[in-house]
Amino acid sequence: WVGDAITDSLRAKYPSVDISVAGDNTLYLGKMVVPKVQRNQGIGTQAMNDLVKQADDIGATVTLSPSADFGGNKEKLKDFYKRFGFVQITGRIKGFSIAESMYRTPQENLSTNFSDLGAMATQAYADYKANPNQLNALRYQRIKKAADNAYVKTQTTPSNRYRDWETDRKS
């Protein structure tokens, strides 16, 4: 159902593009067809930028198989997808169960600074409250988890451990 939510958001922004995304943790771009009269105007690039940003926001891998079925050139499509960080699969990849020919793992775009993450989580939560959809909920959960992890690291720095040890030793 994550794929459906991304499909809906992309179709709302790019109504002339025939697009289909399926999946949850691993998304599958089944189709993205820009009408012939609108090709080479940057519409496909904008739609792909939005797709990979949404995938990154929720920490999802995107898979696809370039196809000439809808009038595109398969080799040009491979080059196009590579611009967005997609990698061609040549054989079996350990730990992946991907049947498609290209994939893109989420790009880490989150700070490791607790203060930055706290502000990002606050904004993501506000976005979710203003527009309570699945993508905003997943984005908030991902940022909150990173903020929680960063907070834990601030509590276990060597200087804090030494201070705690000193306090215990003196009592």
Coarse morphology: globular
Kindly, what is the distance between the CA atoms of the first and last residues, rounded to a whole number of angstroms? 56 Å
Helix content: 40-55%
Strand content: 5-15%
SSE succession: HEEHEHEEHHH
Using only CA atoms, what is the Rg? 21 Å
Please give the order of strands in the largest beta sheet.
1-2-3-5-4
Mean pLDDT equals: 81
- Low-pLDDT residue intervals, each spanning 5 or more residues: none
The helix-and-strand class reads alpha+beta
Q: How many β-strand stretches?
A: 5
How many H/I helical runs? 6
Q: Sketch the major β-sheet.
A: 5 strands, mixed
Task: Name its key features.
single chain; 171 residues; alpha+beta; 5-stranded mixed beta sheet; 13% strand; globular
Short précis:
With 171 residues, this protein is an alpha+beta fold.
